[in-house]
Write a structure and sequence with these properties.
about 290 residues, transmembrane helix, four-stranded mixed β-sheet, membrane, transmembrane
Length: about 290
């Protein structure tokens, strides 16, 4: 994808290489798998894990010092920042078209562990959005694991898709969709609550597609193979694909993010339509 030449964002934080004496979550083994299953493109679900995961942490204190970033890390940061700027421009335009004001979130890159207003997390949680501080958190090692462990194609637009999905959760927070979903989950069985979670995640995929549509019109940034990269990533993080890979069988009632086919379909619907009003993923479960 074409991304060079974008201006800098005021909402980008690079905490990679920062040492921390803070409380961190043990991310390996079974616990790491549980976090990955629940929080791949984590959205709102990271909050549900906080009480359990904080009990598994250790230590106290705040980040203390940061090593110098390598040239490759600096280049990665510039790319992430370029995508963030594009999301800011697109969603500001969409909100303005609908007589609303877009509030720009921050995006934080971290290494290994990070402290957030939603609790503490490690790289095992995957990228996630924290509505309490309105920030997206990412450890870029996730994208290598997406390729090596889950068979995704990789590529720069796969990363852009993930960022756009997390920004989609921010849009849901601004529109009140996330809060409404949590209210709807109250008193529901776990299976019914999971269906609502799936709808929220699929809508974030739809918003990632809408962003792609607008960005292509505004910046003509797509190159051959970019959409395939996004679809490959969406397939790799489908609940059915992850469960089949990790536990060897699929339990549909435990899905929280949607199947590979659903995730790809909703991204494509957003990309092809560019119409934010066509993203009612909750209609399918009414």
């Amino acid at each position: 994808m074409k991304w060079s030449g974008r201006r800098s964002s005021e909402n980008f934080e690079d905490r990679r290489g920062m040492s921390s004496g803070g409380k961190t979550i043990v991310g390996g083994g079974i616990i790491g798998i549980i976090i990955l299953l629940l929080n791949t493109f984590g959205g709102e679900n990271v909050q549900m894990l906080t009480p359990i995961l904080e009990q598994m942490g250790q230590g106290n204190g705040a980040p203390t010092e940061q090593r110098a970033l390598t040239a490759d890390e600096v280049a990665e940061g510039k790319f992430i920042e370029a995508i963030l700027v594009d999301t800011e421009d697109v969603w500001a335009k969409i909100f303005q078209e609908n007589n609303m004001q877009y509030e720009r979130p921050n995006l934080v890159l971290f290494s290994e562990a990070v402290e957030t207003e939603c609790g503490n997390a490690t790289s095992a949680s995957g990228p996630f959005y924290c509505p309490a501080d309105q920030k997206v958190y990412m450890d870029l090692t996730f994208f290598e694991e997406l390729k090596t462990k889950f068979g995704a194609q990789g590529g720069d637009f796969a990363t852009a898709y993930v960022i756009a999905h997390e920004i989609g959760h921010h849009v849901q927070t601004l529109l009140g969709t996330s809060a409404k979903m949590r209210q709807m989950q109250q008193g529901k069985s776990q299976a019914e609550a999971n269906k609502l979670s799936v709808a929220l995640e699929l809508q974030a995929d739809f918003y990632a597609g809408v962003w792609t549509h607008y960005n292509q019109k505004m910046n003509n940034f797509l190159e051959e193979g970019d959409i395939d990269e996004a679809l490959s990533a969406a397939h790799a993080v489908g609940d059915d694909a992850i469960q089949a890979k990790i536990q060897g069988h699929i339990v549909p009632e435990s899905f929280t993010h949607g199947t590979s086919a659903q995730r790809k379909a909703w991204f494509l619907k957003g990309y092809k339509s560019g119409d934010i009003t066509q993203g009612d993923t909750f209609a399918e479960i009414r």
